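tool=predict chain=A
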Amino acid sequence: MKGFLRVYGVTLAAVLGCVVGAAAVFLLAHDVAFVRSTIRSDDVRYAAVPGEQLWAPRQLVPGGVARALLGVNDDIELRKALRGTRLSHPENPGFSDPSYVVNRNEATAWLTDLVQSDPSSQRRAQAANLLGILSFSDALADFTNRGRLLSSAAGRFRQAITLDPSNADAKLNLELTLSRTKALNLSESGGGTNPSPGGKGAKGAGAGEAGSGY
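tool=predict ok
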C-alpha cells in the first residue's frame, strides 16, 4: 500500500486535516467570544476596583489571534494606560508612594507608545491628553522644573486637540494650564514665589473610566 490510507476514496490525512481545522475554528470562535465578554466585564470591574489586573483574557489559540481579529489590542493598551494613570493618582502631586511611581512610569510608557503608533487619531488624542495631565501633576510638585513641565503639559494638550478637535477634555485642560502658567509668571514677576499657585490642578479626562470614548 502506497501513500496514505484511503477511506471511501479520501485520504486519511485529508480527513484528519478537516478535523483539526474544524477544531481550530471552534477554539478561535470561543476565544473571540471570551475576549469580547472579558473586556465588557472588566470595564465594569475597573469602575469599582481599578487596582485589579484587568483586560488579560486567556486564549486557547496562541499568539493573540482572537484579539488581532477583533482589532482590540490598541483599545486594551489604552485601557491599561488609563488604569495606570488613575492608580498613579495625579490628583495627589508629589506623593511618593512606590506603587504610584511604578504605575506612573508604566502609564507614561504605554501612553507615549499610543501617541506615536496608534492608528486611531481619537485614541492618540486621549493618550496625549493623559500625558499632559501627568506633566501638569508633576509641575504642581516640582517647583524647580515647573515652567518646563507646564510647557510640556500645554504642548500635549495642544497635540490632543490637533489630533481630535472634538476632545473637550484637552481644551479644558489647556485652558487651565495656560491660566496656571500666567498666574505663575505674574507671581514671580512681582517678586514672590508660590510653590502651588492657583487651584487644585487639571480636570477633564484625568483618570476617566475605561470603555468611554471608544
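The first strand starts at residue 6 and ends at 7. Confidence is low (pLDDT under 50) at residues 186-214.
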